[in-house]
Write a structure and sequence with these properties.
Elements (H helix, E strand, L loop, with lengths): L5 H10 L2 E4 L3 E7 L6 E5 L2 H4 L2 H18 L6 E7 L8 H18 L7
Parallel strand pairs: 3-4
Antiparallel strand pairs: 1-2, 2-4
Helix pairs in contact: 3-4
Length: 114
């Protein structure tokens, strides 16, 4: 599932309970009321370049999320691309995202909050 509305994004930006950052991405997470995770993307022209590069990066992030969503708790996740991310190859992007998904699942796991 995806974060679709401005209100969903604003809620995550204002109240994020978990943040994970590296050279390629900043990932914000906030537990939601659902049993499944939802993804939102923020990929600027400054971060990834022209529309073709931005859309390719978004597809890579969505695919990584799809492959790892079973391990993620019910959270709203916003992935923000950092400047220069499009200069890196797909393998580096995939490994960066895998590390973020692991951090998010550890920090936002339901048992960790009780």
């Amino acid at each position: 599932m995806r974060l679709a509305t401005r209100e969903d994004f604003d809620r995550v930006f204002k109240n994020c309970s978990s943040r994970s950052t590296d050279a390629l991405f900043t990932v914000l997470a906030l537990p939601n009321d659902h049993t499944y995770p939802r993804l939102g993307l923020a990929v600027s022209k400054k971060a990834a370049g022209n529309a073709v590069r931005r859309h390719r990066l978004k597809r890579r992030v969505r695919e990584s999320f799809r492959l790892n969503q079973h391990a993620l708790p019910g959270t709203d996740i916003v992935v923000i691309a950092r400047p220069g991310v499009s200069r890196h190859d797909g393998q580096k992007v995939a490994s960066s995202l895998a590390a973020h998904w692991n951090r998010i699942s550890e920090k936002c796991a339901p048992s960790a909050s009780s």
